[in-house]
Predict the structure.
Amino acid sequence: MCDCRAGGRAAHEAQNFRDSCALSCEIAALLEATSANLKESWRALYGTEAPRRISRDLLIRALAYRILEKTLGGLKPSTRRLLAKVAAAASARRPIQLTPEPALKPETVLLREWHGTQHRVIVREDGIVFNGKKYKSLSQVAYRITGTKWSGPLFFGLKANRQENTNGAI
């Protein structure tokens, strides 16, 4: 049995607590559910029949994951693409490469305007050259330009757009 009480918490904290508690209770209830109820939950959450030979433990775990996914959101689009790429490589029996290819080739020139001044960096085999000085990363150059910590790829416009960093809610 699941019992959640928010006590003397602030209103928005209490609501978050109740939501979190309700989610925990829903998942905990799976442990007490009958096989028929679990399979019914599968149909409701996945829109298909449960696999015939799935163990009770795996069925509960899959249902718990799906409940969390529907409530909190799924994988980022970039993670989905990576998983699809890995699956395709595995099914084709190709070696799986998880580390991305270097995005910038040596001698690439990057330009960035910051507060009315145009900054130019050159990518080299052994690092980044900015104002005649060598740096190990674009982030170090971004820090040198702005005086604050930045993601170098984001600062120079190389990082994926903002939507890539949001959860892919179902």
Remarks:
- Helices lie at 11-32, 35-46, 56-72, 77-91, 138-146, 152-155.
- The longest helix spans residues 11-32.
